[in-house]
Design brief:
Blueprint: H1 15-22, H2 42-56, H3 61-96, H4 109-124, H5 127-157
Helix pairs in contact: 2-3, 3-4, 3-5
Length: 183
Amino acid sequence: MPRPRKITKHGPQTQAGIARIRAANTTHGIFSREVLLECESAGDLDAFTAGLYRRFEPDDEYECMLVDRVVDTAWRLARGRRAETALANNLYREALNWPENQCDDENDEEFIMLRHRVLITRIAINPGMEKLLRYETTVERQYYKALNQLERVQRSRQGDQVAPPAALDITVSEGPPLELPVS
């Protein structure tokens, strides 16, 4: 007969631990639970929100929800761009100090261009940058999904004929490439 399993608590037990876990998603802030981080201006977010409400003029609760979704994702995209810029600048400055990136002749344009290309490549393949770009891609998809839905709902409300969203399935098969006729 199997022994009964001991039930244990998982996760933080103290208020400090709970606060630390709650802040875990705010490293770059793209997927934080809160739209506004402590380092951001509530006034800027309010002005941004008001501008989008003026632009879209939602008519009912559903349209308001979609405008809020557009605001949230657009705000997170802007934050992601700021985080990307800060990360790239930090990586660039850090890499400039590496011995292999030093040159006795700072006027050697060929070395400077080569060093610049190497540094940009190192930034592009940095795991933190790759992760950040994946997050941005996810948020961008959410943004366009909400925006497209909002625009479809508003066109329908205004009496326009709105076609259902197009779904396209693409199958890629192995084999020789298709030859297109030359005109």
